[in-house]
C-alpha cells in the first residue's frame, strides 16, 4: 500500500478548492481508465448474467473500507463512493455488453 496521504494545510477556501480541483483531475483520469476495463469485461464475458457479481462487489467494498482505514481515511465515505461507482459501472457494462452484441444478433 502507498504511503498515508496527507492533505496540505489551507488557510482559505480558495486553497481548499484548488487542492480539490487538482485531486478531481487525477481521480477523473483514474475513473476513465477504470471504465476502459469495464468495456473489456463486457467484451470478455459471455453471459449478461455475469455482469452483476455480488460476491465481487462485496469483496471490493470490504477491500476499499480496509484500505481507507489503513490510510487514516473514512471507510464509510470510501465504501459509499465505491458502491455508487460500482452501480454506475455495472449499468455501463450492461449497456456495453448489449452494444457489442447488437451486430452479432443481426
From TrEMBL:
The keyword Lyase applies. Residues 7-97 form the Chorismate mutase domain. The keyword Transcription does not apply. InterPro entries: Chorismate_II_sf, Chorismate_mutase-related, CM_dom_sf, CM_II_prokaryot. Its EC number is 5.4.99.5. Keywords: Isomerase, Lyase, Pyruvate. One of its GO terms (molecular function) is isochorismate pyruvate lyase activity. This is chorismate mutase. It comes from Rhodoferax saidenbachensis.
Amino acid at each position: 500500500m502507498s504511503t498515508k496521504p496527507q492533505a496540505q494545510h489551507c488557510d482559505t477556501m480558495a486553497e481548499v478548492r484548488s487542492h480539490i480541483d487538482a485531486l478531481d483531475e487525477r481521480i477523473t483520469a483514474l475513473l476513465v481508465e477504470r471504465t476502459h476495463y469495464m468495456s473489456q469485461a463486457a467484451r470478455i464475458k459471455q453471459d449478461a448474467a455475469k455482469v452483476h457479481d455480488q460476491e465481487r462487489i462485496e469483496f471490493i467494498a470490504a477491500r476499499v473500507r480496509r484500505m481507507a482505514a489503513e490510510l487514516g481515511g473514512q471507510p464509510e465515505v470510501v465504501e459509499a463512493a465505491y458502491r455508487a461507482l460500482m452501480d454506475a459501472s455495472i449499468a455501463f457494462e450492461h449497456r456495453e455488453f448489449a452494444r457489442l452484441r447488437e451486430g452479432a444478433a443481426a
